[in-house]
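Let's practice the habit of predicting before peeking. Look at the sequence and jot down your guess about where helices and strands might fall. Then scroll down.
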Amino acid sequence: MTKPFVLGISGSPRKNGNTDIVVKKALEVISEEKQVETMFLRIADFNIKHCKGCRECMETGECSIKDDDFNTVLEKLKAELVVVGAPVFWFGPPGVMKDFIDRTHGFYTDPRHLAGKKVGIISVATSSGFEPHEKILS
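Done guessing? Here is the structure:
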């Protein structure tokens, strides 16, 4: 029997910053409590292009952009639990994370990727902007 898989995603453009630290810590705590396999990835380490807004994904179930790393990250979303962390930049996640979120637009109802997924959200900020930020991440 294989161990359940938990994916931690950092949406920060700053390597080894607060968001990376907190997402890694969440994975560490989860793996201490449960027998799971974990993986950490940073969205900024991948080449993910901007969504074109073509809505082809709504028809075909695939993104029309094929020459970047989006599908590599999308495949990892098969995890039983996804912990998503991002810093708050002007009441929302930074551009690298927003590009990834925009590209998932056509997959919210797809049972292979996002439908029914258990997700934990970590917002990293000083004192404000959490509410709109968390609406975007969820």
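How did you do? The two ends are 31 Å apart (CA to CA).
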